[in-house]
Amino acid sequence: MRQFDDAISITVAIIIVVTVAFVQEYRSEKSLEELGKLVPPECHCIREGNLEHRLARELVPGDTVCLSVGERVPADLRLVEASDLCVDESSLTGETSPCSKSTLPQPASSNGDIASRSNIAFMGTLVRCGRAKGIVIGTGENSEFGEVFKMMQAEEAPKTPLQKSMDLLGKQLSLYSFGIIGVIMLVGWLQGKKLLDMFTIGVSLAVAAIPEGLPIVVTVTLALGVMRMVKKRAIIKKLPIVETLGCCNVICSDKTGTLTKNEMTVTQLFTSDGLHAEVTGVGYNGAGDVLVDGEIIHGFSCPSVSKIVEVGCVCNDSVIRNQNLLGRPTEGALIALAMKMGLEGLQQDFVRLEELPFSSEQKWMSVRCVHRTLQDKPAVYFLKGAYEQVIRLCSCYNSRGSSLPLTPQQRELYQQQISYMGSAGLRVLGFASGSELGSLTFLGLVGIIDPPRSGVKEAIGKLINSGVAIKMITGDSQETAVSIASRLGLYSKGSRCLSGDEVDHLDLQQLSSIVSRIAVFYRASPRHKLKIVKSLQNIGAVVAMTGDGVNDAVALKAADIGVAMGRTGTDVCKEAADMILVDDDFQTIMSAIEEGKGIYNNIKNFVRFQLSTSIAALTLISLATLMNFPNPLNAMQILWINIIMDGPPAQSLGVEPVDQDVIRQPPRNVRDSILTRSLLSKVLLSAFIIVCGTLFVFWRELQDNVITPRDTTMTFTCFVFFDMFNALSSRSQTRLVYELGFCSNRTFCFSVLGSIMGQLLVIYFPPLQSVFQTESLYFTDLLFLVSLTSSVCIVSEAVKVLERWRGSQRSPPASDCFHEV
């Protein structure tokens, strides 16, 4: 009736489990709610020949829907009319550039590939330019977006390594403890001891031996880790995820918006007369310079470059307002280039007379215009597009202001430059101008790329050096994906890449056999990403998946750790994730991994302390019973030891500052039990010292063969003091107590002092003396007990010194531990 501490511990543990289950269910519902936010509440629908405003949820297959710039597609539509239609599908496919759409039928072989279905507008995607009409072919869960969420709902979040370790440890401790307790009760009863007394001792030992305080300590430790991560701009949505990061050995990362900025940027120019120009700065803010031979050019100081910029700025339908792009990202990159040269006002200098819009068939756009101040002059064509198509319309090339006939040598020069830019992952555009479309003057080439985020390369290097493998999964082309991966240090000469189609043709076992050697997955869809994550988990990897788009949501939920970008991530992605990077800083993942390692180490410290106490208590009673000694501890004393074992001193080990020795270690193997051979040896050594010391005190006091309150008080106090010194040495597995500092963990200091004060009250406070059957001890008794019980700390510290010396004699372990899983 007095086991209030155990009742509270069990109640709290039940509340935690129920709360986690509730939160999981709530997050699932929130994910479905966020799907609705991506779909417009209203749309333009034609019914009975009339254009009507309808709620998107009222659409049914067969309805005709009209689309215009800036609108989100309310359902999957089969296009029947399309005029210069471009749709941003980056949140669904990962493609950076908007996809051109047409009404042309597609071959049956393209039905499974979202990116190649150019006659379908998918629900939730954004119309960047043009207009269209389409017939509804899929709504809600029957759309492509719906398929994503059906897969996400079907995915069960896997148990974390910590949960698996705790489950295994709890089962093992319970099995061994109940077996030993049963033997003790049986032997005691056969020796003629009272059955009720043996039953009381057995129940007390069961309470003390089974670590019901472990879930609470784990929860407190993880919660404090979450609070520390918030200060580092990372939101942890599930407590165990912090620890899981500590054993993460694979990160699967989406390219667009995660490793890159999702902002197309011009990085190189090549003029028709052979000038190379480098462009600095990223994004749509106009920051950066254009350099030729290391010198900054501005305005029209370099006519060959300025002419290209002029064409790119005038032959353009996009606008940048307050650093936000309205239009195509490629055109936004050209306007940003003009801003860097101070030529952004060129659009207003020309009057557009005619426009031939870009189409996926002709692959170029042109405008026929005149200068606003020179309208009496002949009109001129400005044209941009794919080099192969642009060069067909050219008969000359610009050379320092003069038009010279195009020669095979010039064409070969341009082709070599295109190959060079393409190998760097750049998207290449050609530019031309002239009075007639069939005989234009070629002006040059521009290379555009979606640049990597700042700091990502350094973070990736640190992660790889610490034993974490990183795999890039993207919907982009092979050239673009490999180029970005090479820039970030993810792809080298011996690396391999795999396409989404190739993933489709491999079963899970086949993919699992090669996935560890693949650095880049390109043209990947949500189902590919999910299959890749599962194949990695199939070979024992602990997988973190980062992303920011709806296309990542299913894989985020299936992964051991789902990491979403806070700024650029969609709401659906954030709801599916376990961790959100508030400032989209990829480097925060490194801090999270270090935090996870430190937290797991603190939990191991607690397990070491608690197990050594439990084993010591069980062994002490077992030996006393087998040797037919009186019980050295009564039931209430055992329960008091249990309070100390599960109480403040034990739980304060969970708030120990992160050990710097631990965070430098590679990720642990997920299959390793929390109770490693090294930890078990330390537990048994401490338990052995505690049992030997306590039995020695009990034997020393029992010289008259008559057990008295003094005998049990000395034995009881000896055991408690052993516990306090054991807790002191358990603060770190590698660092000595004096290196940690006695006051570096004030919570621990106050907890130990409180426990000692409580023990003194049990010994000297009369009401408690009667409850615990104790009596007052002399000061010399206390000094003797302190001297004896400090041995457990002294021996533990000596073991640390020995291990440190042995470690210095061995070579350091390999940093890449992924291949060990």
Automatic annotation (TrEMBL):
Residues 90-112 are annotated as: Disordered. It catalyses: Ca(2+)(in) + ATP + H2O = Ca(2+)(out) + ADP + phosphate + H(+); Mn(2+)(in) + ATP + H2O = Mn(2+)(out) + ADP + phosphate + H(+). Its EC number is 7.2.2.10. It holds the Pfam family Cation_ATPase_C. One of its GO terms (biological process) is intracellular calcium ion homeostasis. Its main location: Golgi. It is an enzyme of class 7 (translocase). One of its GO terms (cellular component) is Golgi cisterna membrane. It is found in: Golgi apparatus, Golgi stack membrane; Golgi apparatus, trans-Golgi network membrane; Membrane. Gene3D superfamilies: Calcium-transporting ATPase, cytoplasmic domain N, Calcium-transporting ATPase, cytoplasmic transduction domain A, Calcium-transporting ATPase, transmembrane domain, HAD superfamily/HAD-like. Residues 38-153 form the P-type ATPase A domain. The keyword Cell membrane does not apply. The chain crosses the membrane at residues 6-23, 173-192, 198-227, 679-699, 711-728, 748-765, 777-799. The keyword Translocase applies. Residues 630-802 form the Cation-transporting P-type ATPase C-terminal domain. It is a multi-pass membrane protein. InterPro entries: ATPase_P-typ_cation-transptr_C (IPR006068), ATPase_P-typ_cyto_dom_N (IPR023299), ATPase_P-typ_P_site (IPR018303), ATPase_P-typ_TM_dom_sf (IPR023298), ATPase_P-typ_transduc_dom_A_sf (IPR008250), ATPase_P-type_domA (IPR059000), HAD-like_sf (IPR036412), HAD_sf (IPR023214). Catalyzes the hydrolysis of ATP coupled with the transport of calcium. Monomer. Homodimer. Belongs to the cation transport ATPase (P-type) (TC 3.A.3) family. Type IIA subfamily. This is Calcium-transporting ATPase.
